[in-house]
Amino acid sequence: MADDTTAPRTVLVTGASTFLGGYLVARLAANPAIERVLAVDSRVPRKDLIRRMGRAEFLRLDIRRPTIAKAIATYDVDTVVHAATSIMDTAPHSAAIKEFNVVGAMQVCAAAQRSPSVKRLILRSTAMVYGASAHDPSHFDEGTPARREPKRGYGRDLLDIEGYARGLARRRTDMDVTIVRAQAILGPRISTRMSSYLSLPIVPTVIGYQPRLQFLHEEDALAAMEHVVLGSRPGTFNIAGEGVMTLTQAIRRIGHLELPVPSGLLAPITGVLQDLKAAKLRSSQTEFLTYGRVLDTTRMRAELGFAPRYTTTETLDDFVARGGVTPIIGAQTWRAVERRVVAAAHQLQ
After folding, report:
1. CB-side neighbour CA atoms (13 Å) of 122
2. Where is each NAD-dependent epimerase/dehydratase domain found (predicted)?
3. Distance CA 179, CA 238 (A)
4. How many domains does the chain have?
5. 99 contacts 202 by C-beta, under 8 angstroms
6. Residue 284 has what pLDDT?
7. Residue 49 within any structural domain of the chain
8. Angstrom distance (rounded) from CA 58 to CA 224
9. What's the rounded Cα separation, in Å, for the pair 252 and 336?
10. Is 261 exposed, middle or buried (0-12, 13-18, 19+ CB in 10 A)?
11. Residues 239/221, Cβ–Cβ less than 8 Å
């Protein structure tokens, strides 16, 4: 196990063109305690993101190729952050994306295993690995197996990728491997399938279900990854904002209208209401919006020593206030309706 008092010297971050990967690079590059920060991606980040990266060095290479091992060896990397999985925030899942995810993770883990300089590997995973079903527990802790394990999509990819990371930890006992399972990320700058879905003026929901949701603010997602990089806490950790709300509560808080539909029509009707392009709903997202998913974050606070700044409610409010979401029904209107409903209920008693 690596010495948790030793600050990283040379950090390599994959997925530098994504929001999470790119802005994490910017945070790390601003830290003078880190000697060198390497930003890796096959795509060149946006110009504004490149500027934010400051002194970080950008390496344009494909993580599916052996060149990733050469880069790790050449720069004597001691900390590898595999954030290329952040592509799932916006890109629709496909055979090409699956190859990128799985083969890329295999190459990164193999390169880290062969390099004697690498002492830490941090994997950005998500709560998708738990799946979503009617038989789920009220809260998923890190040791809770999925009641209905994802068979396809990003959830399946991440289960496989996490397996590679844990295998690496077994083979390299001198290396710290940390898996960060982030809850659904929202914020004014990041674009995700959830943010696209909630931005619809009329939001389709599955009739007869009230999924319980948690959100993680984009700044807290970045802060959690930075926290793990700067400290050495091996293991798997759920990351989520405090508090829970139902999907209906979220829609009303945003000021949009709910349209209950049969489960099989959720994805197609959502597509009709707005062309979500790269953020189209898939079956795993439909299951999540039917049954919900709530994480137990006890280990995040007690063992990792991290506490998000934003609660679930505050995350949603900031997404509305600064993310360009326009309410079509104000909060005062909803409160007036609720008061009338409560008054009518009292009269019936």
Report:
1. 29
2. 11-240
3. 9
4. 1
5. no
6. 62
7. yes
8. 23
9. 13
10. middle
11. yes
Q: What are phi and psi of 306, to 5 degrees?
A: -120, 140
Residue count of the chain, please give it.
349
Q: Is residue 261 part of a domain?
A: no
Strand 176-182 relative to strand 57-60, pairing: unpaired
Helix, strand, coil distribution of the chain in percent, nearest 5:
45, 15, 40
Residue closest to 254 by CA, chosen among 324, 327, 172: 327
Segments forming the whole domain that contains residue 44 = 10-185+216-240+295-304
Q: In the block, which residue shows the tokens 């009269």?
A: 347
Residue by residue, DSSP assigns 243-312 as --EEHHHHHHHHT-EEEEE-GGGHHHHHHHHS--GGG---HHHHHHHHHB--B--HHHHHTS----SS-H
Q: What is the CATH number of the domain that holds 220?
A: 3.40.50.720
- How far from each other are the two terminal CA atoms of the chain, in whole angstroms? 64
Q: Is residue 248 part of a domain?
A: no
Q: Are 104 and 110 in contact (CB under 8 A)?
A: no
Answer whether residue 46 is part of any domain: yes
Could you count the other beta carbons within 10 Å of the beta carbon of residue 81?
Answer: 31
